[in-house]
Specification:
mainly alpha; 30s Ribosomal Protein S18; elongated; Small ribosomal subunit protein bS18m; Ribosomal_bS18_sf; Ribosomal_bS18
Length: 178
């Protein structure tokens, strides 16, 4: 908004405060030079993009698909950079798959409940054991952290929820160790 005021008015904005603006009649300094620099910079960018467009041959058209171009999204500002070739093409970035936990073989080896044949649901009255699988904010740790089998993780989560509802362990925090 301030930039629009500076360009539209022959007056110069001397200072800006919250909810007020002070105007002066002094001529803007170096504004013509700044404008000339901006025009030259824009012209050089346009020439570079024109060269890129000329280099773009129809043989490359086969490799392009609809999913490779980005289009402006609703409720997002559009800047001049949005229309450049580099910004309009999507980058081939592969997102790393989220770590869900160990494989079945590894988890059977690391899962204490599985090794000892203990059912986590039978331990819902044991707050000392359950507190090892709860974060400081009272959330159940994920399988990637606990290294349990799928079955033990499900049953442990159920045991923790039961213990919380019975008031054995706190709902939104980890039980303090003494």
């Amino acid at each position: 908004m301030l930039a629009l005021l500076r360009r539209a008015s022959p007056f110069r904005v001397s200072s800006v405060r919250a909810f007020s603006t002070t105007w002066s009649n002094a001529a803007p300094s170096n504004s013509i030079q700044e404008l000339a620099d901006l025009v030259e910079e824009t012209q050089s960018r346009l020439e570079e993009e024109a060269e890129q467009i000329q280099e773009f041959s129809p043989s490359n058209l086969r490799t392009w698909s609809e999913g490779m171009l980005k289009f402006p999204q609703a409720h997002k500002p559009v800047t001049p950079r949005t229309f450049t070739m580099q910004d309009r093409t999507k980058k081939n970035s592969f997102r790393k798959r989220p770590y869900l936990g160990p494989s079945a073989k590894v988890s059977r080896r690391k899962d204490v409940f599985h090794q000892l044949g203990i059912d986590p649901l039978q331990e819902s009255l044991n707050p000392a054991l359950l507190s090892h699988f709860v974060t400081d904010m009272g959330r159940v740790m994920g399988r990637a952290e606990t290294q349990l089998t799928w079955r033990s993780q499900r049953r442990l989560s159920k045991a923790i929820r039961r213990a919380k509802m019975m008031g054995i362990i706190p709902l939104h925090s980890k039980k303090a160790r003494l």
